Structures are given as C-alpha cells and as structure tokens.
C-alpha cells in the first residue's frame, strides 16, 4: 500500500526515513528504524576517526540485514573528519545509500555517486532542491521551519514548502518538519511527498541512546516548547526551550557575535548533557512535533501505529 519511488529506490518497505540526529543516530537507533521497515540513517559527523566510523557501520550490519544510509554533513563546523575520508570509508564498506546535508554536494558529486550509490540530499529551500536535482541527486528531502535543528532562514512551513518543491522538481521528494504520527505521514503524501523523515519523534523511542530525562522532556513538551536560536546570525536553529537556549536568546538580544555564542553551542557540551541527563545543560535540537509526542515507544511499535492511523485516514477519505 505504501509503495512509492522512494521505497523502490531504497529497497525499503515503508517510506519513513530516520533523521540524522547528532550523537544519537548510532547503530541501535539506525538498525531499529531499518528493522521496522524504514531507512535508518547513521550520522557520520560525530566520529573522530575513519576507524570509528567503519566500526559503527559494521555494527549496524550486525544488527540488521536491511538497507541503511550514512549522512554526510557538509557544513564545515559539523565534521571532525575530512569529507573525502568519510566518503572513502562508506564506499569501501559498501554503503549503497548516502545522504548529504548542510551545504551543496556539488564539489563532491563524482565521488559521492561512485558505483550504484543512491544519493539523497536534505535541504530547506525550494531553490536548493532544484539545484540538487540538476546536480544528479536521486532523492531530495525538504524540511520546513517546524523541524528540529536547522531550518531555512526563510522560515517557510512544511505545509507550504513541500507542495512548492514537488511542483518544482521531478525526482522523488521526502518531507520533514512537524511529522510525528499517521496524520502527518498521510498529509505529507497528500501534498506530494513520496516519503517522510522523522527526527524529533525518534528521540522518544526505546532504542534512542539518550538519557531518559530527555525522553521525558520530549513527551512533556508542548507545541510551543521550542525556540529558534541564531536568527541574529542568519542561520536559525530550532531547539528545546531550556536554560541553555534562553541564555543564547538573551545574548543575541544584546548583540553577541557568533564567536561569543559558539561556546554555548558546543556539540561536546551537548553530548555531555545527553549522557548525564542534564536537560538544561546544553542546546537540545528539537522540533515542534515534540508537542505531538505522548509516550516512549519501541521504533517498530511506533511505525505500526503510524501506518495503522494512516490506513484508517485513507479509508475515511475514500
């Protein structure tokens, strides 16, 4: 029933893609998403050596025989490893699906598309999706301003961005931002998407390797529990409204420079907070979809409920 060009290209059962969550999209969560019929995505940006990345890819393979992808964040400050090294490892390990994000993949297209690689590119503007298609990307993902992490400075919602993108490209489009249940999944398909990506909803799953305090924070969040940081720098970031985020907003209001803000945004600071369960101890990327999350579930059960709800909607619409 849920067969689309995305499921056919990726070899998956249901058109649900896991978000590349910093520090969290490691083998347990990636394998859980793939085993549930979707596409798990391993975030490569937090590995400090090629050997560490290689071991994690092999661990994913030990946990699932289903397709999975590796995300390569092209933004300069988001990767401890040179992009060329990451590409070399993923190709050497035979990873067939790659996802790029953060910047245009244009300088690396020849290397990225070696062999029979399927390349997805994640972006937040229609013009970036159109450029990705011209470059030869196979699938484009667009995320509206509801998403956790980095939406576009244009701040266009998924409900508007998605159909405009679908009208502007011929390759399959995956939708992200604000999707947490069967209603969002079905709405995205109705707007022309051939798959969805979920990040925030996966934070509150049993397999997500984050402290239970953060999972509770997502379950207890309302739709207004997130804020957009770094608007002053023209690079907005949606995060949970916690003490660390409010400190940054206060600094921005006083005209702080990016250099002054960066220590508060340190990924290592966030990682330490994740590990000790300090919800206020760092910036916690989180989307508005947190307000729709009601409980922590295993990924397989979450997907079952999403598809069941979508089927019920489809029957009602008929």
Overview of this protein structure:
With 318 residues, this protein is of the alpha/beta class. It has 2 domains: 5-210 and 292-317, TIM Barrel (Alpha-Beta Barrel); 220-288, no CATH class. It has helices at residues 5-10, 27-35, 50-63, 83-92, 109-112, 126-135, 158-168, 182-190, 200-203, 212-220, 243-253, 258-261, 267-276, 299-317, and strands at residues 16-18, 40-43, 68-73, 97-101, 118-123, 139-143, 173-176, 195-198, 226-229, 237-240. It has an 8-stranded parallel beta sheet with strand order 1-8-7-6-5-4-3-2. β2 (40-43), α3 and β3 form a beta-alpha-beta unit. α2 packs parallel to α3 (50-63) and α6 (126-135) runs parallel beside α7. The radius of gyration is 18 Å and the shape is globular. The two termini are 14 Å apart. The mean pLDDT is 95.
Which labels suit this protein?
318 residues; alpha/beta; TIM Barrel; 14 helices; 41% helix; globular
What's the helix and strand layout?
Blueprint: H1 5-10, E1 16-18, H2 27-35, E2 40-43, H3 50-63, E3 68-73, H4 83-92, E4 97-101, H5 109-112, E5 118-123, H6 126-135, E6 139-143, H7 158-168, E7 173-176, H8 182-190, E8 195-198, H9 200-203, H10 212-220, E9 226-229, E10 237-240, H11 243-253, H12 258-261, H13 267-276, H14 299-317
Helix pairs in contact: 2-3, 3-4, 6-7, 8-14
């Amino acid at each position: 029933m849920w067969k689309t060009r995305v499921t056919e290209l990726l070899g998956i059962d249901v058109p649900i893609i896991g978000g590349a969550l910093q520090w969290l999209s490691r083998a347990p969560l990636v394998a859980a998403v793939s085993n549930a019929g979707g596409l798990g995505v391993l975030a490569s940006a937090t590995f400090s050596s090629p050997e560490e990345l290689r071991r994690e890819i092999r661990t994913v393979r030990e946990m699932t025989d289903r397709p999975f992808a590796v995300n390569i964040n092209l933004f300069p400050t988001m990767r401890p490893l040179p992009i060329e090294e990451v590409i070399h490892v993923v190709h050497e390990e035979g990873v067939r699906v790659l996802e790029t994000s953060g910047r245009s993949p244009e300088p690396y297209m020849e290397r990225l598309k070696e062999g029979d690689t399927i390349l997805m590119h994640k972006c937040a503007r229609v013009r970036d999706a159109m450029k990705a298609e011209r470059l030869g990307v196979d699938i484009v993902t667009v995320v509206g301003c509801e998403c956790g992490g980095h939406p576009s400075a244009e701040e266009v919602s998924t409900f508007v961005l998605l159909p405009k993108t679908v009208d502007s490209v011929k390759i399959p489009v995956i939708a992200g931002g604000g999707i947490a249940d069967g209603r969002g999944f079905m709405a995205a398909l109705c707007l022309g998407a051939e798959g969805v990506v979920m990040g925030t909803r996966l934070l509150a799953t049993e397999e997500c390797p984050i402290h239970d305090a953060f999972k509770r924070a997502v379950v207890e969040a309302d739709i207004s529990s997130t804020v957009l940081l770094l608007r002053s720098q023209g690079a907005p970031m949606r995060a949970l409204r916690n003490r660390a985020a409010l400190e940054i907003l206060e600094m921005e209001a006083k005209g702080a420079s990016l250099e002054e803000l960066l220590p508060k945004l340190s990924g290592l600071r966030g990682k330490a907070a994740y590990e000790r369960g300090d919800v206020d101890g760092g910036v916690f990327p989180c989307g508005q979809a947190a307000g729709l999350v009601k409980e922590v579930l295993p990924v397989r059960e979450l997907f079952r409920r999403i598809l069941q709800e979508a089927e019920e909607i489809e029957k009602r619409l008929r």
